Amino acid sequence: MTTATAGGAATPGAPPPVTKKGVAGTRAWIAACFLLPALVLLAALVVYPIGYSVVRSFFDTEGTGFVGLDNYGELFSDPGTRTALKNNLVWVIVAPAVSTALGLIYAVLTERVRWGTAFKMIVFMPMAISMLAAGIIFTLVYQQDPERGVANAVWTGIHDTFSESSAYPGARPRPNTGIEKTAGGSFTTEETVRAGDPAGLPLVGIPPAEIPKDAAEAVAAEPDGDKVTGTVWLDFTPGGGGEAGVIDRGEKALAGVKVEAVRDGEVVASAESGEDGTYSLPASAAGAQLRLPGSNFTEAYNGINWLGPNLVTPAIIGSYIWMWAGFAMVLIGAGLASVPRELMEAARVDGANEWQVFRKVTVPLLAPVLAVVTVTLMINVLKIFDLVYILAPGATQNDANVLALQLYLLSFGTDAEQGVGSAIAVVLLLLVVPVMAFNIRRMRRERRP
Protein backbone atom coordinates (compact mmCIF):
# COMPACT_ATOMS: atom_id res chain seq x y z
CA MET A 1 0.00 0.00 0.00
CA THR A 2 1.31 3.47 -0.94
CA THR A 3 0.03 7.04 -0.38
CA ALA A 4 0.72 10.19 -2.38
CA THR A 5 3.42 12.55 -1.02
CA ALA A 6 3.42 16.32 -1.25
CA GLY A 7 5.42 16.16 -4.44
CA GLY A 8 2.83 13.92 -6.04
CA ALA A 9 4.55 10.63 -5.62
CA ALA A 10 2.28 7.73 -4.91
CA THR A 11 2.24 6.43 -1.39
CA PRO A 12 1.46 2.83 -0.75
CA GLY A 13 -2.15 2.25 0.56
CA ALA A 14 -3.99 5.08 -1.33
CA PRO A 15 -7.31 3.97 -3.02
CA PRO A 16 -7.74 4.57 -6.79
CA PRO A 17 -9.83 7.55 -7.95
CA VAL A 18 -13.65 6.76 -7.86
CA THR A 19 -15.77 7.43 -10.99
CA LYS A 20 -19.47 7.78 -10.27
CA LYS A 21 -21.44 5.08 -12.08
CA GLY A 22 -24.98 3.83 -12.10
CA VAL A 23 -26.35 0.59 -10.78
CA ALA A 24 -25.56 -1.21 -14.01
CA GLY A 25 -21.97 0.05 -14.00
CA THR A 26 -22.64 2.82 -16.52
CA ARG A 27 -21.85 6.49 -16.09
CA ALA A 28 -25.00 8.46 -15.24
CA TRP A 29 -24.65 10.97 -18.08
CA ILE A 30 -24.31 8.15 -20.66
CA ALA A 31 -27.47 6.50 -19.33
CA ALA A 32 -29.26 9.87 -19.49
CA CYS A 33 -28.24 10.30 -23.14
CA PHE A 34 -29.72 6.95 -24.04
CA LEU A 35 -32.94 7.59 -22.05
CA LEU A 36 -33.46 11.13 -23.34
CA PRO A 37 -35.08 10.18 -26.71
CA ALA A 38 -37.47 7.81 -24.97
CA LEU A 39 -38.31 10.40 -22.33
CA VAL A 40 -38.96 13.04 -25.01
CA LEU A 41 -41.29 10.68 -26.88
CA LEU A 42 -43.01 9.70 -23.64
CA ALA A 43 -43.57 13.35 -22.76
CA ALA A 44 -44.80 14.23 -26.26
CA LEU A 45 -47.07 11.24 -26.79
CA VAL A 46 -48.31 10.49 -23.25
CA VAL A 47 -47.66 13.18 -20.66
CA TYR A 48 -48.59 16.20 -22.78
CA PRO A 49 -51.87 14.69 -24.16
CA ILE A 50 -52.93 13.67 -20.65
CA GLY A 51 -52.18 17.12 -19.24
CA TYR A 52 -53.87 18.89 -22.14
CA SER A 53 -56.98 16.69 -21.84
CA VAL A 54 -57.26 17.45 -18.14
CA VAL A 55 -56.98 21.20 -18.77
CA ARG A 56 -59.33 21.05 -21.78
CA SER A 57 -62.00 19.31 -19.73
CA PHE A 58 -62.51 22.53 -17.73
CA PHE A 59 -63.25 24.66 -20.82
CA ASP A 60 -66.23 25.04 -23.12
CA THR A 61 -66.66 23.68 -26.64
CA GLU A 62 -64.58 26.43 -28.24
CA GLY A 63 -61.87 26.09 -25.62
CA THR A 64 -61.98 29.78 -24.70
CA GLY A 65 -64.36 29.91 -21.74
CA PHE A 66 -63.59 28.34 -18.38
CA VAL A 67 -66.59 26.29 -17.20
CA GLY A 68 -65.11 24.49 -14.20
CA LEU A 69 -66.80 21.16 -13.48
CA ASP A 70 -69.79 21.80 -15.77
CA ASN A 71 -68.49 19.35 -18.37
CA TYR A 72 -68.34 16.62 -15.73
CA GLY A 73 -71.86 17.48 -14.58
CA GLU A 74 -73.11 17.26 -18.16
CA LEU A 75 -71.19 14.05 -18.59
CA PHE A 76 -72.98 12.20 -15.80
CA SER A 77 -76.39 13.68 -16.60
CA ASP A 78 -76.29 12.53 -20.24
CA PRO A 79 -78.29 9.30 -20.84
CA GLY A 80 -75.87 8.20 -23.57
CA THR A 81 -72.89 8.45 -21.24
CA ARG A 82 -74.72 6.59 -18.47
CA THR A 83 -75.46 3.79 -20.95
CA ALA A 84 -71.78 3.78 -21.94
CA LEU A 85 -70.73 3.51 -18.27
CA LYS A 86 -73.14 0.63 -17.70
CA ASN A 87 -71.88 -1.19 -20.81
CA ASN A 88 -68.26 -0.63 -19.79
CA LEU A 89 -69.06 -2.22 -16.43
CA VAL A 90 -70.53 -5.25 -18.23
CA TRP A 91 -67.46 -5.44 -20.45
CA VAL A 92 -65.02 -5.27 -17.51
CA ILE A 93 -66.85 -8.00 -15.59
CA VAL A 94 -67.72 -10.43 -18.38
CA ALA A 95 -65.11 -10.22 -21.14
CA PRO A 96 -61.89 -10.67 -19.07
CA ALA A 97 -63.46 -13.35 -16.87
CA VAL A 98 -64.77 -15.46 -19.76
CA SER A 99 -61.62 -15.00 -21.87
CA THR A 100 -59.38 -16.00 -18.95
CA ALA A 101 -61.57 -18.99 -18.07
CA LEU A 102 -61.57 -20.24 -21.66
CA GLY A 103 -57.84 -19.67 -21.93
CA LEU A 104 -57.31 -21.71 -18.77
CA ILE A 105 -59.50 -24.54 -20.06
CA TYR A 106 -57.78 -24.56 -23.45
CA ALA A 107 -54.31 -24.50 -21.88
CA VAL A 108 -55.05 -27.41 -19.53
CA LEU A 109 -56.86 -29.58 -22.08
CA THR A 110 -54.37 -29.09 -24.90
CA GLU A 111 -51.67 -30.64 -22.72
CA ARG A 112 -53.52 -33.94 -22.90
CA VAL A 113 -54.05 -34.28 -26.68
CA ARG A 114 -51.65 -35.02 -29.48
CA TRP A 115 -52.82 -32.21 -31.70
CA GLY A 116 -52.58 -29.63 -28.92
CA THR A 117 -50.09 -27.48 -30.84
CA ALA A 118 -52.36 -27.30 -33.89
CA PHE A 119 -55.33 -26.45 -31.68
CA LYS A 120 -53.38 -23.68 -29.95
CA MET A 121 -52.41 -22.24 -33.32
CA ILE A 122 -56.04 -22.20 -34.47
CA VAL A 123 -57.27 -20.59 -31.25
CA PHE A 124 -54.49 -17.99 -31.29
CA MET A 125 -54.91 -17.18 -34.98
CA PRO A 126 -57.60 -14.48 -34.45
CA MET A 127 -54.97 -12.41 -32.61
CA ALA A 128 -53.20 -11.99 -35.94
CA ILE A 129 -56.01 -9.85 -37.33
CA SER A 130 -57.05 -6.35 -36.32
CA MET A 131 -60.19 -5.36 -34.44
CA LEU A 132 -61.42 -3.75 -37.65
CA ALA A 133 -61.12 -7.01 -39.58
CA ALA A 134 -62.75 -8.94 -36.72
CA GLY A 135 -65.65 -6.47 -36.75
CA ILE A 136 -66.17 -6.99 -40.48
CA ILE A 137 -66.03 -10.78 -40.06
CA PHE A 138 -68.62 -10.78 -37.29
CA THR A 139 -70.83 -8.35 -39.19
CA LEU A 140 -71.26 -11.22 -41.66
CA VAL A 141 -71.56 -13.83 -38.89
CA TYR A 142 -74.41 -11.91 -37.23
CA GLN A 143 -76.39 -11.18 -40.42
CA GLN A 144 -80.13 -11.55 -39.81
CA ASP A 145 -80.73 -13.51 -43.02
CA PRO A 146 -79.99 -17.22 -42.32
CA GLU A 147 -78.75 -17.61 -45.88
CA ARG A 148 -75.98 -15.07 -45.20
CA GLY A 149 -75.34 -15.08 -41.45
CA VAL A 150 -73.53 -18.11 -40.03
CA ALA A 151 -74.95 -17.67 -36.51
CA ASN A 152 -78.56 -17.61 -37.69
CA ALA A 153 -77.94 -20.40 -40.21
CA VAL A 154 -76.88 -22.66 -37.33
CA TRP A 155 -79.62 -21.41 -35.02
CA THR A 156 -82.44 -21.83 -37.54
CA GLY A 157 -81.12 -25.29 -38.44
CA ILE A 158 -81.38 -26.33 -34.79
CA HIS A 159 -84.80 -24.68 -34.45
CA ASP A 160 -86.23 -26.32 -37.56
CA THR A 161 -84.97 -29.71 -36.39
CA PHE A 162 -87.25 -29.62 -33.36
CA SER A 163 -90.07 -27.42 -34.67
CA GLU A 164 -92.24 -27.90 -37.73
CA SER A 165 -92.25 -25.09 -40.25
CA SER A 166 -95.54 -23.69 -41.52
CA ALA A 167 -96.96 -24.88 -44.83
CA TYR A 168 -97.74 -21.49 -46.36
CA PRO A 169 -96.45 -18.51 -44.33
CA GLY A 170 -98.48 -15.35 -44.74
CA ALA A 171 -101.49 -17.04 -46.38
CA ARG A 172 -105.04 -16.01 -45.45
CA PRO A 173 -108.58 -16.92 -46.49
CA ARG A 174 -110.19 -14.99 -49.33
CA PRO A 175 -112.33 -12.18 -47.86
CA ASN A 176 -116.10 -12.54 -47.76
CA THR A 177 -116.04 -16.32 -47.88
CA GLY A 178 -117.34 -16.89 -44.35
CA ILE A 179 -113.93 -17.58 -42.79
CA GLU A 180 -112.85 -15.20 -40.03
CA LYS A 181 -109.62 -14.73 -38.13
CA THR A 182 -109.61 -16.13 -34.59
CA ALA A 183 -107.15 -16.43 -31.69
CA GLY A 184 -103.61 -17.60 -32.22
CA GLY A 185 -103.48 -16.59 -35.89
CA SER A 186 -106.00 -19.27 -36.87
CA PHE A 187 -109.02 -18.91 -39.18
CA THR A 188 -112.45 -20.44 -38.44
CA THR A 189 -115.61 -20.82 -40.55
CA GLU A 190 -118.66 -18.91 -39.39
CA GLU A 191 -121.03 -21.74 -40.33
CA THR A 192 -120.96 -25.35 -39.20
CA VAL A 193 -120.35 -28.10 -41.74
CA ARG A 194 -122.46 -31.08 -42.74
CA ALA A 195 -121.60 -34.53 -44.00
CA GLY A 196 -122.18 -34.88 -47.73
CA ASP A 197 -121.80 -31.12 -48.33
CA PRO A 198 -118.18 -30.32 -49.38
CA ALA A 199 -116.71 -27.26 -47.63
CA GLY A 200 -114.23 -25.31 -49.74
CA LEU A 201 -111.46 -23.34 -48.02
CA PRO A 202 -110.05 -20.80 -50.53
CA LEU A 203 -106.78 -19.10 -49.59
CA VAL A 204 -104.95 -16.11 -51.03
CA GLY A 205 -101.83 -14.11 -50.20
CA ILE A 206 -99.33 -16.76 -51.29
CA PRO A 207 -96.61 -15.53 -53.68
CA PRO A 208 -96.27 -17.71 -56.79
CA ALA A 209 -92.67 -18.50 -55.81
CA GLU A 210 -93.97 -20.14 -52.60
CA ILE A 211 -96.11 -22.62 -54.52
CA PRO A 212 -94.25 -25.87 -55.32
CA LYS A 213 -93.53 -26.19 -59.05
CA ASP A 214 -95.05 -29.68 -59.11
CA ALA A 215 -98.25 -28.59 -57.31
CA ALA A 216 -101.32 -30.26 -58.81
CA GLU A 217 -104.43 -28.45 -59.94
CA ALA A 218 -107.11 -28.18 -57.31
CA VAL A 219 -109.90 -30.77 -57.45
CA ALA A 220 -113.41 -30.31 -56.09
CA ALA A 221 -114.01 -32.84 -53.31
CA GLU A 222 -116.65 -35.49 -53.92
CA PRO A 223 -119.67 -35.45 -51.60
CA ASP A 224 -119.69 -38.29 -49.07
CA GLY A 225 -122.66 -38.82 -46.80
CA ASP A 226 -120.49 -40.46 -44.12
CA LYS A 227 -117.75 -37.84 -44.09
CA VAL A 228 -117.11 -34.13 -44.12
CA THR A 229 -115.05 -33.36 -47.22
CA GLY A 230 -113.68 -30.26 -48.90
CA THR A 231 -110.77 -28.66 -50.76
CA VAL A 232 -108.04 -26.24 -49.78
CA TRP A 233 -106.71 -24.32 -52.76
CA LEU A 234 -105.11 -21.09 -53.91
CA ASP A 235 -108.05 -19.05 -55.15
CA PHE A 236 -106.09 -17.24 -57.82
CA THR A 237 -106.27 -17.78 -61.55
CA PRO A 238 -103.04 -17.07 -63.46
CA GLY A 239 -103.58 -14.28 -65.96
CA GLY A 240 -106.67 -12.98 -64.13
CA GLY A 241 -110.32 -13.88 -64.34
CA GLY A 242 -111.99 -16.65 -62.44
CA GLU A 243 -114.72 -16.55 -59.83
CA ALA A 244 -113.98 -15.92 -56.15
CA GLY A 245 -114.65 -18.89 -53.91
CA VAL A 246 -114.94 -21.31 -56.84
CA ILE A 247 -112.29 -23.75 -58.07
CA ASP A 248 -111.43 -22.48 -61.54
CA ARG A 249 -109.30 -24.12 -64.18
CA GLY A 250 -105.57 -23.68 -63.48
CA GLU A 251 -105.91 -22.90 -59.77
CA LYS A 252 -103.43 -24.84 -57.63
CA ALA A 253 -104.10 -27.23 -54.78
CA LEU A 254 -102.52 -26.51 -51.41
CA ALA A 255 -101.20 -29.75 -49.97
CA GLY A 256 -100.25 -30.27 -46.33
CA VAL A 257 -102.69 -27.76 -44.81
CA LYS A 258 -104.05 -28.90 -41.45
CA VAL A 259 -107.85 -28.68 -41.04
CA GLU A 260 -109.53 -29.10 -37.64
CA ALA A 261 -113.19 -29.64 -36.74
CA VAL A 262 -113.98 -27.61 -33.60
CA ARG A 263 -117.07 -27.91 -31.43
CA ASP A 264 -117.47 -25.84 -28.25
CA GLY A 265 -113.78 -24.98 -28.34
CA GLU A 266 -112.68 -28.62 -28.51
CA VAL A 267 -111.06 -30.28 -31.52
CA VAL A 268 -113.19 -33.30 -32.42
CA ALA A 269 -111.33 -34.31 -35.60
CA SER A 270 -108.49 -33.19 -37.80
CA ALA A 271 -107.09 -33.94 -41.24
CA GLU A 272 -104.48 -32.71 -43.69
CA SER A 273 -105.07 -31.76 -47.29
CA GLY A 274 -103.67 -34.13 -49.89
CA GLU A 275 -101.77 -33.50 -53.12
CA ASP A 276 -104.98 -32.48 -54.90
CA GLY A 277 -105.99 -30.18 -52.03
CA THR A 278 -108.85 -32.35 -50.76
CA TYR A 279 -109.35 -33.37 -47.14
CA SER A 280 -111.69 -35.79 -45.41
CA LEU A 281 -113.01 -35.70 -41.84
CA PRO A 282 -115.07 -38.42 -40.11
CA ALA A 283 -118.81 -38.08 -39.57
CA SER A 284 -118.17 -36.91 -35.99
CA ALA A 285 -117.09 -33.58 -37.50
CA ALA A 286 -120.63 -32.87 -38.72
CA GLY A 287 -122.13 -29.88 -36.92
CA ALA A 288 -118.70 -28.46 -36.03
CA GLN A 289 -116.85 -25.45 -37.37
CA LEU A 290 -113.75 -25.85 -39.49
CA ARG A 291 -110.56 -24.20 -38.28
CA LEU A 292 -107.26 -23.64 -40.04
CA PRO A 293 -104.66 -23.49 -37.20
CA GLY A 294 -102.21 -20.60 -37.15
CA SER A 295 -99.35 -23.09 -37.52
CA ASN A 296 -100.29 -23.28 -41.22
CA PHE A 297 -99.51 -19.60 -41.76
CA THR A 298 -96.80 -18.48 -39.34
CA GLU A 299 -93.88 -16.72 -40.93
CA ALA A 300 -90.71 -18.71 -41.42
CA TYR A 301 -88.32 -18.60 -38.46
CA ASN A 302 -85.43 -16.29 -39.34
CA GLY A 303 -83.33 -16.75 -36.22
CA ILE A 304 -82.25 -14.18 -33.66
CA ASN A 305 -81.57 -10.50 -34.14
CA TRP A 306 -78.05 -10.72 -32.71
CA LEU A 307 -77.34 -7.03 -33.23
CA GLY A 308 -80.71 -5.87 -31.91
CA PRO A 309 -81.00 -3.65 -28.83
CA ASN A 310 -81.23 -6.57 -26.39
CA LEU A 311 -78.32 -8.70 -27.61
CA VAL A 312 -75.92 -6.29 -29.30
CA THR A 313 -73.54 -5.95 -26.32
CA PRO A 314 -73.33 -9.71 -25.56
CA ALA A 315 -72.84 -10.38 -29.28
CA ILE A 316 -69.93 -7.93 -29.50
CA ILE A 317 -68.42 -9.35 -26.30
CA GLY A 318 -68.62 -12.78 -27.94
CA SER A 319 -66.55 -11.56 -30.89
CA TYR A 320 -64.00 -10.05 -28.47
CA ILE A 321 -63.70 -13.35 -26.60
CA TRP A 322 -63.16 -15.12 -29.93
CA MET A 323 -60.11 -12.90 -30.47
CA TRP A 324 -58.59 -12.74 -26.99
CA ALA A 325 -59.16 -16.25 -25.60
CA GLY A 326 -56.09 -17.31 -27.60
CA PHE A 327 -54.01 -14.60 -25.95
CA ALA A 328 -55.07 -15.85 -22.51
CA MET A 329 -54.39 -19.46 -23.52
CA VAL A 330 -50.80 -18.73 -24.61
CA LEU A 331 -49.89 -16.86 -21.41
CA ILE A 332 -51.55 -19.41 -19.15
CA GLY A 333 -49.96 -22.24 -21.13
CA ALA A 334 -46.53 -20.69 -20.54
CA GLY A 335 -47.27 -20.48 -16.82
CA LEU A 336 -48.56 -24.04 -16.78
CA ALA A 337 -45.30 -25.30 -18.27
CA SER A 338 -43.44 -24.04 -15.19
CA VAL A 339 -45.77 -25.69 -12.68
CA PRO A 340 -43.94 -28.50 -10.80
CA ARG A 341 -45.41 -31.79 -11.95
CA GLU A 342 -44.36 -33.42 -8.71
CA LEU A 343 -47.05 -31.53 -6.83
CA MET A 344 -49.75 -32.80 -9.18
CA GLU A 345 -48.48 -36.36 -8.98
CA ALA A 346 -48.33 -36.14 -5.20
CA ALA A 347 -51.94 -34.98 -5.11
CA ARG A 348 -52.99 -37.90 -7.33
CA VAL A 349 -51.09 -40.34 -5.14
CA ASP A 350 -52.95 -38.94 -2.12
CA GLY A 351 -56.24 -39.85 -3.83
CA ALA A 352 -57.27 -36.59 -5.47
CA ASN A 353 -59.24 -36.89 -8.70
CA GLU A 354 -58.49 -34.74 -11.76
CA TRP A 355 -61.04 -32.06 -10.84
CA GLN A 356 -59.56 -31.75 -7.35
CA VAL A 357 -56.03 -31.56 -8.77
CA PHE A 358 -57.15 -28.82 -11.13
CA ARG A 359 -59.02 -26.84 -8.46
CA LYS A 360 -56.68 -27.34 -5.49
CA VAL A 361 -53.26 -27.47 -7.18
CA THR A 362 -53.23 -26.17 -10.75
CA VAL A 363 -55.36 -23.06 -10.31
CA PRO A 364 -53.64 -21.82 -7.10
CA LEU A 365 -50.22 -22.27 -8.68
CA LEU A 366 -51.38 -20.38 -11.76
CA ALA A 367 -52.94 -17.54 -9.72
CA PRO A 368 -50.17 -15.00 -10.58
CA VAL A 369 -50.49 -15.72 -14.30
CA LEU A 370 -54.30 -15.59 -14.14
CA ALA A 371 -54.05 -12.21 -12.40
CA VAL A 372 -51.75 -10.87 -15.13
CA VAL A 373 -54.09 -12.02 -17.90
CA THR A 374 -57.23 -10.73 -16.19
CA VAL A 375 -55.76 -7.30 -15.39
CA THR A 376 -54.37 -6.94 -18.92
CA LEU A 377 -57.74 -7.74 -20.44
CA MET A 378 -59.52 -5.39 -18.03
CA ILE A 379 -57.31 -2.51 -19.15
CA ASN A 380 -57.90 -3.53 -22.75
CA VAL A 381 -61.70 -3.60 -22.53
CA LEU A 382 -61.88 -0.28 -20.69
CA LYS A 383 -60.71 1.38 -23.89
CA ILE A 384 -62.58 -0.86 -26.35
CA PHE A 385 -63.75 1.19 -29.32
CA ASP A 386 -63.26 -0.11 -32.84
CA LEU A 387 -65.06 -3.43 -32.42
CA VAL A 388 -68.17 -1.68 -31.08
CA TYR A 389 -67.99 1.04 -33.73
CA ILE A 390 -67.82 -1.48 -36.59
CA LEU A 391 -70.26 -4.12 -35.31
CA ALA A 392 -73.10 -2.11 -33.79
CA PRO A 393 -75.49 -0.90 -36.52
CA GLY A 394 -76.68 2.69 -36.42
CA ALA A 395 -80.06 1.73 -34.99
CA THR A 396 -78.55 0.04 -31.93
CA GLN A 397 -75.26 1.90 -31.57
CA ASN A 398 -76.62 3.82 -28.60
CA ASP A 399 -77.52 0.53 -26.89
CA ALA A 400 -73.98 -0.82 -27.40
CA ASN A 401 -72.25 2.46 -26.56
CA VAL A 402 -69.05 2.42 -24.47
CA LEU A 403 -66.98 5.27 -23.05
CA ALA A 404 -64.32 5.29 -25.76
CA LEU A 405 -66.97 5.37 -28.49
CA GLN A 406 -68.89 8.09 -26.65
CA LEU A 407 -65.65 10.09 -26.41
CA TYR A 408 -65.18 9.81 -30.18
CA LEU A 409 -68.77 10.68 -31.02
CA LEU A 410 -68.81 13.73 -28.72
CA SER A 411 -65.38 15.00 -29.73
CA PHE A 412 -65.53 14.46 -33.47
CA GLY A 413 -69.21 13.98 -34.28
CA THR A 414 -71.62 16.38 -35.94
CA ASP A 415 -72.13 18.49 -32.81
CA ALA A 416 -68.59 18.36 -31.44
CA GLU A 417 -68.35 18.87 -27.68
CA GLN A 418 -64.62 18.58 -27.10
CA GLY A 419 -64.85 19.84 -23.56
CA VAL A 420 -67.20 16.97 -22.62
CA GLY A 421 -65.09 14.58 -24.71
CA SER A 422 -62.00 15.58 -22.74
CA ALA A 423 -63.93 14.97 -19.53
CA ILE A 424 -64.72 11.43 -20.72
CA ALA A 425 -61.01 10.92 -21.46
CA VAL A 426 -60.16 11.95 -17.89
CA VAL A 427 -62.81 9.60 -16.50
CA LEU A 428 -61.39 6.76 -18.59
CA LEU A 429 -57.92 7.53 -17.22
CA LEU A 430 -59.23 7.50 -13.66
CA LEU A 431 -60.89 4.12 -14.29
CA VAL A 432 -57.69 2.62 -15.68
CA VAL A 433 -55.37 3.97 -12.94
CA PRO A 434 -56.67 1.70 -10.10
CA VAL A 435 -56.28 -1.38 -12.27
CA MET A 436 -52.73 -0.35 -13.19
CA ALA A 437 -51.92 0.41 -9.56
CA PHE A 438 -53.15 -3.03 -8.53
CA ASN A 439 -50.99 -4.63 -11.21
CA ILE A 440 -47.87 -2.69 -10.17
CA ARG A 441 -48.44 -3.50 -6.50
CA ARG A 442 -48.88 -7.19 -7.34
CA MET A 443 -45.64 -7.27 -9.36
CA ARG A 444 -43.69 -5.58 -6.56
CA ARG A 445 -45.06 -8.05 -4.05
CA GLU A 446 -43.96 -10.96 -6.23
CA ARG A 447 -40.40 -9.59 -6.44
CA ARG A 448 -39.98 -9.53 -2.70
CA PRO A 449 -37.90 -12.40 -1.32
TrEMBL record:
**CDD domains, alphabetized:** TM_PBP2 (cd06261)
Q: Does the keyword Disulfide bond apply?
A: no
Q: Where in the cell is it found?
A: Cell membrane
Keywords of the record, alphabetical order, are:
Cell membrane, Membrane, Transmembrane, Transmembrane helix, Transport
The record's listing under Pfam families reads: BPD_transp_1
Bilayer-spanning residue ranges: 28-50, 89-109, 121-142, 320-340, 361-382, 419-440
Membrane topology of this protein? Multi-pass membrane protein
Protein origin, superkingdom: Bacteria
Instruction: Please list the GO biological process terms of this entry.
Output: carbohydrate metabolic process; transmembrane transport
User: Where do the ABC transmembrane type-1 domain residues begin and end?
Assistant: 85-439
What are the record's GO terms for cellular component? plasma membrane
Major place of localization?
A: membrane
Q: Which InterPro entries match?
A: Ig-like_fold (IPR013783), MetI-like (IPR000515), MetI-like_sf (IPR035906), UgpAE/MalFG_permease (IPR050809)
**What family is this protein classified in?**
Belongs to the binding-protein-dependent transport system permease family.
Which named protein is this?
Sugar ABC transporter permease
Q: Organism source for this protein?
A: Streptomyces xinghaiensis
Lineage, highest ranks first: Bacteria, Bacillati, Actinomycetota, Actinomycetes, Kitasatosporales
